[in-house]
């Protein structure tokens, strides 16, 4: 057994943890990552990157098929094997050596094994060969362990070995049919990818699709999924699952049955916090870790207040990589500032506060059409008590969009705070809208007054002219 001391110990070695460590080391601290699987975590190997690689070939093919002159040149079907091979290049065949190299180059320590808190500023790491290393943190411990998929309590479901998003993003063979339980982002993206590969997909979702987005986004994505051949079973939930000769048979709450070669469960996430020693510091195993805006774990037991932080999925603020990495930058910096006695800027929009998590989160669903949104939906803004005005515009009427694709179909919505005359939320739905999103994020985070936005002139003829059309529809004061 060896004993080692670091300024900062981070349990987890995902994308978020890497960024916490990097900022803390750049701020003058020593830091070590504890990782039990692959350095880089879910996003690199079983989530963002492989899923987007699975989707990209189909999106590019359809984009080419939507332009007269190009569609005549692109007449073949998607090459599934080549798409899977390209996906494998992004996951480096599930080998993390390049990330380990980056960690070492950044001056960050790395210990492989399962990390558990054993008390205040103390972490025990159990390697796969059973070796145990006890670590002590001089200043802080960050929990950045991510989340696991939820398996709904449906009789028989666990016994049919359903796919989780990991199997769906890393599959080497595309099944003939796939039943997807869930109607969120994973369900919609994987249905788009697998239907493009020729798989017979059924989505089973107890409510509609993309429940946190504007209603028109869900409607447009639903329509396009149907055109891709996806069967939508909405408003139902499975009540039983069993595996037979033809695959898995799911009985649904309306009495109908779906039979598919494989079942993908995409019904949300739970915190990866059951076996990390939370009980040793007065917290409850299996809980999400509630944090303040500097990512410090809240709780009134004094012995953990002041040294324990949580970043990324495990704090349940926003389950997205880019937002977790934003939290990581704030956390790494504030840990260094507190440790070295420097000034702490933890007020709204301060360098050490993850303020944007509350009402300025961008997200893209890489369905076809894409859904790109930031800030509050019209529904969420109203619920939050804002006096709003909602402005809608048809993206297909914008010159840049009509050039982008023949018969371009898309919609945009801007939600305005009528008291402050600033933008609260924007949603774009359509081909290639993901690259329009950042201007909306800047407008929201910068609280740019609507009358100043008129001076941000979009280049002609780009799809960004949607901004001018939204402003014209809103009216110039
Ligand atoms: C299919 C899918 C697609 C997605 N696509 C996107 C997308 O396009 N864009 C986006 O922004 N988000 C996307 N997400 C969400 C994104 O993957 C997560 O928000 C992100 O991975 C969270 O990062 P994290 O570092 O908090 O957790 P993780 O990436 O899960 O990293 C946690 C790490 O900690 C390790 N660990 C856990 N417990 C211990 C322990 N006790 N000891 C040692 N190590 C431990 C794990 O092995 C893991 O490597 C997607 C999610 C899914 C499921
Ligand atoms: N492009 C991206 O940014 C991206 C892509 C994938 C995932 N993610 C993130 O990963 C997280 C997990 O995604 P997810 O899609 O698993 O979760 P989610 O919370 O987005 O969606 C879960 C869905 O499952 C449905 N559901 C739950 N229980 C059910 C049941 N018993 N029967 C039928 N339907 C049921 C819910 O109504 C909901 O539609 C999300 O926070 C998401 O933002 C992001």
TrEMBL record:
Domain FAD/NAD(P)-binding: 6-324
Cofactor dependence: FAD
Domain Pyridine nucleotide-disulphide oxidoreductase dimerisation: 361-467
Record bears the keyword Ligase: no
InterPro entries to which the protein is assigned, alphabetical: Class-I_Pyr_Nuc-Dis_Oxidored (IPR050151), FAD/NAD-bd_sf (IPR036188), FAD/NAD-binding_dom (IPR023753), FAD/NAD-linked_Rdtase_dimer_sf (IPR016156), Pyr_nuc-diS_OxRdtase (IPR001100), Pyr_nucl-diS_OxRdtase_dimer (IPR004099)
GO molecular function: kinase activity
N-terminal signal peptide: none
Pfam families membership: Pyr_redox_2 (PF07992), Pyr_redox_dim (PF02852)
Record keywords: FAD, Flavoprotein, Kinase, NAD, Pyruvate, Transferase
Entry's family note: Belongs to the class-I pyridine nucleotide-disulfide oxidoreductase family.
Protein name: Pyruvate/2-oxoglutarate dehydrogenase complex dihydrolipoamide dehydrogenase (E3) component
């Amino acid at each position: 057994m060896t004993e080692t001391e670091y300024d900062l110990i981070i349990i987890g070695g995902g994308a978020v943890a890497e960024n916490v460590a990097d900022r803390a080391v750049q701020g003058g601290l020593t830091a070590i990552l504890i990782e039990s699987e692959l350095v880089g975590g879910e996003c690199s190997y079983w989530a963002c990157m492989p899923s987007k690689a699975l989707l990209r070939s189909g999106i590019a093919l359809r984009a080419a098929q939507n332009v007269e002159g190009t569609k005549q040149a692109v007449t073949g079907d998607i090459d599934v094997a080549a798409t899977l091979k390209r996906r494998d290049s992004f996951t480096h065949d599930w080998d993390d050596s390049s990330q380990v190299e980056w960690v070492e180059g950044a001056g960050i320590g790395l210990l492989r094994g399962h990390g558990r808190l054993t008390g205040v500023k103390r972490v025990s790491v159990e390697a796969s060969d059973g070796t145990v290393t006890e670590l002590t943190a001089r200043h802080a411990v960050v929990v950045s362990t991510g989340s696991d998929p939820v398996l709904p309590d449906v009789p028989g479901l666990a016994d049919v070995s359903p796919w989780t998003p990991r199997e769906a993003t890393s599959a080497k063979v595309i099944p003939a049919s796939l039943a997807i339980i869930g109607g969120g982002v994973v369900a919609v993206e994987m249905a788009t990818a697998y239907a493009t590969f020729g798989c017979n997909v059924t989505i089973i979702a107890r409510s509609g699709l993309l429940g946190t987005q504007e209603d028109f986004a869900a409607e447009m994505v639903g329509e396009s999924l149907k055109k891709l051949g996806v069967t939508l079973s909405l408003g139902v939930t499975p009540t039983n699952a069993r595996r037979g000769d033809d695959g898995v048979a799911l009985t649904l709450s309306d009495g109908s049955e779906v039979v598919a070669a494989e079942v993908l469960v995409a019904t949300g996430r739970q915190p990866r916090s059951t076996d990390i020693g939370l009980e040793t510091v007065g917290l409850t195993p299996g809980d999400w870790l509630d944090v303040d805006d500097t990512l410090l774990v809240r709780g009134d037991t004094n012995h953990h207040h002041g040294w324990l932080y949580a970043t990324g999925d495990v704090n349940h603020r926003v389950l997205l990589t880019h937002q977790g990495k934003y939290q990581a930058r704030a956390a790494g910096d504030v840990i260094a500032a507190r440790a070295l006695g420097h000034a702490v800027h933890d007020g709204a929009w301060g360098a050490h506060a993850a303020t944007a998590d509350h009402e300025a989160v961008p997200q893209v669903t890489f369905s076809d059409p894409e859904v790109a949104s930031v800030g509050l939906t019209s529904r969420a803004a109203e619920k939050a008590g804002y006096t709003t005005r909602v402005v809608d515009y048809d993206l297909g009427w914008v010159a840049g969009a009509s050039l982008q694709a023949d018969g371009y179909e898309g919609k945009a919505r801007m939600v305005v705070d009528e008291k402050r005359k600033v933008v609260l939320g924007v949603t774009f739905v359509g081909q290639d809208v993901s690259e329009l999103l950042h201007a909306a994020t800047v407008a929201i985070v910068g609280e740019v007054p609507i009358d100043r936005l008129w001076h941000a002139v979009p280049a002609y003829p780009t799809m960004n002219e949607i901004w001018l059309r939204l402003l014209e529809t809103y009216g110039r004061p």
